[in-house]
Specification:
Elements (H helix, E strand, L loop, with lengths): L2 E6 L8 E7 L2 E7 L12 H4 L1 H6 L8 E4 L2 E4 L2 H19 L4 E5 L7 H14 L4 E3 L6 H11 L7 E2 L6 E5 L3 H4 L9 H10 L3 E5 L5 H5 L2 E3 L6 H14 L7 H4 L1 E2 L1 H7 L5 H8 L3 H13 L3 E5 L1 H4 L4 H14 L9 E2 L15 E5 L6 E3 L8 H6 L8 E5 L3 H4 L3 H9 L3 E5 L12 E3 L20 E4 L15 H16 L9 H11 L8 H5 L5 E5 L4 H4 L7 E2 L3 H17 L6 E4 L15 H4 L7 E3 L1 H6 L7 E5 L4 E8 L7 E3 L14 H5 L26 E7 L1
Helix pairs in contact: 3-19, 4-19, 5-15, 9-12, 9-13, 9-15, 12-13
Length: 696
């Protein structure tokens, strides 16, 4: 008999509720859960493809070991012992920092990896740790650490109640939200406009979200700091600020006001490409709205002034009285409260080659290849990767590809033999999404409403398979055995969640048992002001003027003329699509079928100037490499800007993803530059890279 199960999709940050009908271990249908109070029946194409992931014959089910050019299946205990012996041996000979770690984006989508990854990785005691954070969101976390005292205390747009939403470098219609868990964002935007509100999108491309906006402003890539400085300067200069409890709990605002005094709208207009009168009117409209919120995501984080941008966004919300206010920027109060944990740290050590700072125990991934290639104490000789494909997702992927090939040993926790894991000696595949339980630790923390739910497995765990947390426990116990340590006691992730729920802000009414009785999830109410009670700064107040940001303003002032493209130059930006999630959604026919999505988009005038035609093959070159790709004429692009989606480039030998290979595309990160980054954090600057486009 068919059975209907309810759980959330955790392939992206929106965590939409699903109704999945099964018969035995066969999936009959996947639909949106109309009873989910958060997603309200919304579903996107990725969720439908969960069955493709489950049924993919190329998904690994058991550990495999590389023997010559072939892969052989081995048992779990044999794999654990081999890995522990090799890693321990390399560390014994070359020091603990000779083993590196890379954690990919999907780890935060599987709570077992989050709760138990360090059971093994912590035993390595290596400073050579990396993750997708430094090609994605590091500026957000650092600014929250500096201003609010915790790296996860990130205020989220109260989209359901705001009157004015200023959005920079974000495309939630394609991404389903990012550091803003917002399922059904299309209806939420329509509701905003229906109640008389306004959405203004700032982007070098007229994106899917810009198409839905009240107003779209084109901006030169990498110049968002100029616009944000001009807006903040106008707010100060014209006395447009509003008081609020948050503003009254600040230190350093006078320093900020003095530091931005020279960055007028008139001075910044030529750099960002937006008219000064338009900038000033935008500041006035934002300040005049009853409630407003400024939000910037990938497009402003992955540029040379990404940290500066995220700081300015917080200050704009603060000055206009919209920080920690309904309709403005509010911190979520999740049932499992990670903000009560360790706040994070910054710059306690640096990378040995480029002297880049660590953040919360991780170095910027832009340094990974050079740390493998460069001889000396601390050179990475072995690497552990988990659920990541940095060859396609980090800057100068070809260089990293070569670096991985030079390692003495590599192990990957992954479902596939992909562009990165093909270099591994052993691959350990966890169970699939539908075969294990899950709790969204991260995305409930950034949700636009306070919500919670536990997700039960839909399908039975296959015989001989291990969940991701069981893999890390197995590795940890084997490593402890080899190194003469005593393995720590542990418990399943669900028990940890239960303890966290009971000790959390709703502990008087929530537990794992209660969540199990509410399969559609529980709505805990709208976001409310709570930031002041959650501050973890030494002063107990909001720190408005981090010294590094004031110094970075001087770097910006010196560098500003370099931000504008020279005559004839083109600047590269990325692109999202609702059917993709980085590089790991391309082996499923239902997500890659239809019109190809991996072309270069280019303004018709830029094509004409170069004697190029719509639909022809072109070569795109940067300092680090080149790709050959079809170009499409598009008036949605700002002239002088070209767009190439990331996550493609499935044309390397030795992978086992046939559908992805048939739709290979090219990798945008064969063009991005590991030397082009935000020097404050070392976060990769993937947007604004200078490129040349010529006929193939």
């Amino acid at each position: 008999m068919p059975v209907t199960h309810f759980r959330a999709c955790h392939l992206c940050e929106a965590i939409c509720g699903l109704a999945i009908e099964t018969e035995g271990d066969r999936i009959l249908s996947i639909k949106g859960d109309a009873q989910d109070p958060f997603s309200r029946g919304h579903i996107c194409p990725k969720a439908i493809a969960l069955q493709d992931i489950q049924n993919d014959p190329q998904r690994l089910r058991m550990p495999v070991k590389k023997v010559g050019d072939a892969w052989e299946q081995i048992g779990w205990e044999e794999a654990f012992d081999l890995i522990a012996e090799r890693l321990a041996g390399i560390q014994a000979e070359h020091g603990r920092n000779s083993v590196g770690v890379y954690m990919g984006n999907p780890n935060v989508h599987n709570y077992g990896s989050m709760t138990h990854g360090n059971y093994f990785l912590g035993q390595l005691r290596t400073r050579q740790r990396y993750s997708a954070t430094s090609v994605d969101q590091l500026p957000h976390h650092l600014i929250s650490l500096w201003m609010y005292g915790h790296m996860l205390a990130i205020p989220i747009p109260d989209i359901d109640h705001t009157d004015f939403f200023l959005m920079l470098g974000a495309n939630p219609m394609a991404s389903n939200g990012s550091i803003m868990t917002v399922p059904d964002v299309g209806k939420r935007i329509k509701a905003l406009k229906a109640r008389g509100g306004k959405l203004v999108v700032v982007d070098p491309r007229r994106s899917e979200t810009a198409e839905q906006a009240s107003e779209h402003l084109f901006i030169q890539p990498g110049t968002d700091a100029a616009l944000l400085l001009a807006l903040l300067n106008t707010l100060f200069e014209e006395g447009l600020g509003k008081t609020s409890p948050a503003l009254q709990a600040t230190v350093g605002m006078e320093e900020v006001k003095a530091a931005v005094a020279a960055f007028t709208a008139e001075a910044m207009a030529e750099h960002c490409g937006i008219d000064a009168r338009q900038i000033r009117q935008l500041a006035r409209d934002f300040a005049a709205a009853q409630s407003a919120v400024c939000y910037g995501r990938m497009g402003v984080s992955v540029q040379r002034y990404g940290t500066l941008c995220q700081w300015l966004i917080q200050i704009i919300n603060l000055v206009t009285g919209n920080l920690d206010q309904p309709g403005g920027a509010l911190c979520t109060e999740p049932a499992f409260d990670v903000v009560s944990g360790k706040p994070g740290h910054f710059d306690q050590w640096r990378s040995r080659v480029s002297n880049l700072p660590e953040f919360n125990g991780e170095l910027p991934v832009a340094a990974l290849a050079e740390e493998i290639f460069t001889p000396g104490e601390g050179q990475i000789r072995a690497l552990v990767t988990s659920a990541g494909n940095p060859v396609l997702s980090t800057p100068n992927g070809r260089q990293l590809d070569r670096a991985l090939d030079s390692l003495e040993f590599m192990v990957s926790v992954d479902l596939y033999i992909n562009e990165t894991t093909r270099h591994a000696d052993i691959i350990l595949p966890p169970t699939s999404s539908l075969e294990h339980d899950h709790y969204d630790i991260t995305f409930n923390t950034f949700a636009v409403r306070n919500v919670t739910r536990i997700n039960q497995p839909i399908l039975s765990k296959p015989e001989g398979a291990l969940h991701d947390w069981e893999i890390f426990v197995g590795l940890g116990r084997a490593f402890a055995r080899v190194t003469g340590q005593e393995a720590r006691a542990t418990m399943p992730p669900a028990q940890m969640i239960d303890a966290g729920l009971r000790s959390g802000p709703y502990g008087d009414r929530l537990s794992l048992e209660v969540l199990e009785q509410n399969p559609h999830g529980i709505d805990l109410g709208p976001l409310k002001p709570n930031l002041l009670s959650r501050l973890r700064t030494d002063s107990g107040q909001i720190e408005c003027a981090p010294q590094t940001m004031l110094e970075d303003l001087q770097r910006f002032a010196t560098d500003i003329d370099q931000l504008r493209p020279r005559e004839g130059e083109l600047r590269l930006i990325g692109r999202r699509h609702v059917r993709s999630n980085n590089s790991w959604m391309h082996n499923y026919q239902r997500l890659v079928k239809g019109k190809p999505r991996d072309q270069l988009l280019m303004h018709p005038d830029d094509l004409a100037r170069r004697g190029l035609a719509d639909g022809q093959q072109v070569v795109v070159r940067s300092r680090v490499g080149e790709v050959t790709v079809m170009v499409n004429a598009s008036d949605e692009m700002l002239a002088g800007v070209v767009s190439l989606p990331h996550g493609w480039g499935h044309n390397r030998p030795g992978t086992s993803q046939d559908t992805a290979t048939k739709h290979a595309g090219v990798s945008a990160n064969d063009l991005t530059d590991e030397c082009y980054l935000d020097p404050v954090t070392g976060n990769a600057a993937l947007n604004g890279v200078t490129v040349e486009v010529v006929a193939a």
